[in-house]
Write the structure tokens for this entry.
Amino acid sequence: MSNLQAGGGVNQAPAPPSWVEDVDAVNDVLTDIQRQMDQLHSLHATRVGSVFGKDLDDMEGRIEKLTSDITDAFRYAERRLKKVGLATKRAGGEEAQVGANVQRRYVFERRLLFFFVCARYFYLCEGWNMPFLP
């Protein structure tokens, strides 16, 4: 009878699980992180190339603030992903499998975090005139 009930009304589609909002939030956060990392990379490049100038202190402050914001965003995304995992495990069945697949998808987050840490390390080594050694 498709979406029509016997009485002529339309059946409502079931509401998505509550954890779907968490997945959407993680997607938004990862988009913001990528944008912020691009800004940070630009600031790093400008700062490393600048030896003299009155804007260096301001630039260092902006770099530290942006670094802190990115770190906080990663932590927020991780908390939301853990929440997804708990909610889907509690639901069990197919939903648990879907939740596991969703979490696997966010291996990208780990790669992004790795690049963030590497870029930060490289910047610090350049700033201190140290060789870039892993």
User: Anything to note?
Assistant: The first helix runs from residue 19 to 49. The CA atoms of residues 35 and 70 lie 10 Å apart. The chain has four helices and no strands. Confidence is low (pLDDT under 50) at residues 130-134.
